[in-house]
Backbone:
């Protein structure tokens, strides 16, 4: 039994849910979280995205440029959705692959992380089933 | 790799995150949570507050960095010299695999 914790973009929640159903894992828990990733050392990878966002932003706010840069290079905490999925050992790679495929963008950074943790036991409250049967 | 989940006072969240970043552990996830500890909440007269707001800081690190991270969190989440009830708890769990979505690569 494994616990898959995936941290994804908020506008990819729908795609992730669809991907999870197709991968055979319909049950999940989702949480709104704030987070940040590794610092972006090479500014070139975010240059394109930064230019697009700056073009969308209002011109009169002097803070905008700083804010956008900080959100993109990861100095600031930004909102993300955290999915927790329980899975049988043999389904883990399929689910991980599905989440990766659903969440990939061409922004280079900020697509999220997936953690796979071991789970000792699980219990279904309704039937008291334990272990693999509970998932 | 291990996952560190630290429950700290909400007002210590910023300090802990800044110091973790200075120590080289920049990536983290933060959730606002409510809970109670072994003090069974706080009691004022007849009123018991057992849903005390805290911040949960979650980060995944290499095994060998465990002591550094624990030291940073404990040093900065503590209130006063000796610490006080309600300063929080740290939980550590094993993590088998880590993937980065943008590259699909395994590992931190």
Residues:
């Amino acid at each position: 039994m494994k616990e898959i914790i995936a941290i994804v973009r908020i506008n990819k929640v729908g795609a992730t849910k669809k991907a999870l159903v197709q991968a055979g894992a319909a049950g999940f828990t989702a949480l709104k979280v704030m987070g940040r990733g590794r610092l972006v050392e090479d500014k070139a990878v975010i240059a394109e995205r930064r230019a697009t966002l700056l073009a969308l932003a209002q011109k009169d706010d002097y803070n905008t440029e700083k804010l956008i840069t900080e959100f993109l290079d990861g100095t600031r905490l930004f909102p993300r959705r955290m999915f927790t999925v329980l899975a049988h050992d043999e389904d883990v790679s399929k689910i991980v692959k599905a989440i990766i495929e659903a969440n990939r963008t061409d922004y280079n950074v900020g697509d999220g992380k997936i953690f796979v943790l071991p789970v000792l036991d699980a219990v279904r409250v309704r039937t008291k089933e334990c272990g693999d049967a509970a998932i | 790799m291990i996952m560190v989940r630290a429950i700290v006072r909400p007002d210590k969240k910023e300090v802990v995150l800044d110091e973790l970043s200075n120590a080289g552990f920049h990536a983290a996830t933060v959730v606002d949570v409510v809970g109670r500890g072994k003090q069974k909440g706080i009691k004022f007269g007849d009123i018991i507050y057992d849903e005390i707001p805290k911040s949960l800081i979650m980060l995944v690190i290499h095994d060998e960095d465990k002591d550094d991270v624990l030291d940073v969190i404990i040093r900065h989440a503590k209130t006063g010299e000796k610490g006080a009830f309600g300063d929080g708890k740290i939980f550590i769990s094993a993590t088998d695999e880590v993937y980065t979505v943008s590259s699909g690569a395994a590992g931190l």
User: Anything to note?
Assistant: The beta strands of chain B are 2-8, 28-35, 42-44, 47-49, 52-61, 88-94, 97-100. The mean pLDDT of chain B is 92.
